[in-house]
C-alpha cells in the first residue's frame, strides 16, 4: 500500500484556501489511487516547536551524554522524518503570509533538516539523503506573485526539499484570491484544472 502525506499550514484550518485546495488534490489523488493510505500532518492544530538553542543542542548531542529531554527532542524530530520518508507522495497546502511561508512550516523544516539524517555535506557540496518522491505544493496567494520578485516561496521551498533529497517538486498556484470574487473564482478554477490534470 502506498502513502500520501498531506501537510496543512493554513492558519484558518479547513477554511484556509490552501487547505481547501489541498483537500481537493487529495480527494482526486485517492480516487485515482484507492489503495493509498492518507496521513495528514496539520501544523496548525498540532504546532511544532520553533528552533531554539535546546533543539540545536539536542541535534548536536552525543548519545552517551544525552539527557532525557534531548532524547525526547530527537525522537520527535525523527518521527517527523520517518513520516516524510515513508510517504510515496506529498501534498503541501501553502498559503503566503507577508511574502513568506508560514512560520509553522519553517518550524517543521527546521525539525527535519538534520545533518547525517536527511542531508550530508561532501567535498562537492550537500547531498540529500531521503529517497526522492513527488511533492505537490498547492500555493494559495491573495495577490499575484508567480514569476515575480515578490514570490519568495517557490525558490525557497524547492531549494529546501532538494537539499534533503526531494527534487521532484511541482507547484499548483491559486493567485489573486483577495482581489475580488471574480478573481477568486478564476483562481479556484485554474487551480482545480491543474489538480485534475496532475491527478488524472
List the helices and strands and how they pair.
Layout: E1 3-8, H1 17-32, E2 37-42, H2 53-60, H3 68-86, E3 89-95, H4 103-112, E4 119-122, E5 125-128, E6 135-140, H5 153-163, E7 169-174, H6 181-199
Summarize the structure.
The chain has helices at residues 17-32, 53-60, 68-86, 103-112, 153-163, 181-199, and strands at 3-8, 37-42, 89-95, 119-122, 125-128, 135-140, 169-174. By secondary structure, the chain is of the alpha/beta class. Strand 4 (119-122) and strand 5 form a beta hairpin.
Strand neighbour order, sheet with most strands: 2-1-3-6-7
The number of helical segments is 6
N-C termini distance: 19 Å
Beta-strand portion reads: 15-25%
Radius of gyration: 18 Å
Q: How are helices and strands ordered from N to C?
A: EHEHHEHEEEHEH
Q: Provide the residue-averaged pLDDT.
A: 97
Q: Please outline the major beta sheet.
A: 5 strands, parallel
Could you give the count of β-strands? 7
Shape descriptor: globular
Secondary structure: helix percent? 40-55%
By secondary-structure content and strand pairing, the structural class works out as alpha/beta
Low-confidence stretches: none
